[in-house]
Amino acid sequence: MIRYALKCDHDHGFEAWFGSSSDYDDQAARGLVECPFCGSHAVEKAIMAPSVSGTKKSAAPDMAAKMQTMMMEAAREVRAHVEANFDYVGDAFAREARDIHEGKSEKREIYGEATPAEVRKLKEDGVPVAPLPAPPPDPTKVN
Predict the structure, then answer these.
(1) Facing residues of 110 across strands?
(2) Which of 12, 18, 57, 95 sits in a 20 to 30 Å window from 33, CA-based?
């Protein structure tokens, strides 16, 4: 397995694991590598520091675990806030967001589902959209 730091043409950075470097090249060439934030398929490798193991003990693993916990908690809080205060519009999100932006519907905060193509079109047209953090995994169902 190999981990790559990747970024899309909208400058979103993320990491992904592949079976080998040729697996990444093959998947990228076939348009299967997609930005998890905006759905763009224009993804390329980003500069990444190699992970080198040494003999010295480091606090980095503890810090990384703490950072991951903090980020997951922040994502949970954002999602809970949106679910409690925004109107869920399901797969009508793209249409509703556009109608609100164009003044055809009353201004309100909404969330729902949209395809990557719908999100790209909304962004191209200046409609403000952002991905909602995925719900955290159920700890009773995680390996």
Answers:
(1) 87
(2) 95
Given a cut of 80, whether residue 54 has pLDDT beyond it is no
114/41 Cα distance (integer angstroms): 16
- CA-based nearest residue to 93, from 126, 125, 127: 127
User: What does the angle CA 132 – CA 112 – CA 31 come to, to the nearest 5 degrees?
Assistant: 70
**79 backbone φψ class: left, alpha, beta (φ>0; ψ -120 to 50):** alpha
The dihedral formed by the CA atoms of 10, 12, 18 and 22, expressed in degrees to the nearest 10: 30
Segment 98-120 mean pLDDT:
95
What is the structure's pLDDT at 53?
Answer: 62
Instruction: Give the DSSP per-residue string, the chain.
Output: -EEEEEEETT--EEEEEESSHHHHHHHHHTT----TTT--S-EEE---------SS--SHHHHHHHHHHHHHHHHHHHHHHHHHHSEE-GGGHHHHHHHHHTTSS----EE----HHHHHHHHHTT----PPPPPPPPGGG--
**Mean pLDDT across 20-38:** 88
